[in-house]
Amino acid sequence: MMYVIFRCDCGRAMYSKEGIIQKKCVCGKTFKIKSRRIISKAEDAQLASQKVRELQEEKYGDAFFTTADKI
């Protein structure tokens, strides 16, 4: 089973199993995966997830978590 990695129009990197027709982004947009430009492919979900994390960090910087009182 292969996974494809692509971006939504909002810029978020996402992945899906190869052969899936539609995907919905957290921004609310639903689109056909076939119409997306495939950035990369991965052999399993763990590798696909890692690649998505790398793409997100490349675009938006490192992710960090904190509590609201520290902002």
Low-pLDDT stretches: none
- Determine and state the CATH class: Alpha Beta
Within CATH, the superfamily carries the name Structural Genomics, Unknown Function 30-nov-00 1gh9 Mol_id
Relative helix content: 10-25%
Distance between the termini: 42 Å
- Tell me the fraction of residues in β-strands, as a range: 25-35%
Q: How many β-strand stretches?
A: 5
CATH architecture: Alpha-Beta Complex
Q: What strand order characterises the main sheet?
A: 2-1-5
Counting structural domains, the number is 1
Order of helices and strands: EEEEEH
Coarse structural class? alpha+beta
Shape: globular
Radius of gyration: 14 Å
Q: How is the main sheet built?
A: 3 strands, antiparallel
Number of helices: 1
Q: What's the rounded overall pLDDT mean?
A: 89
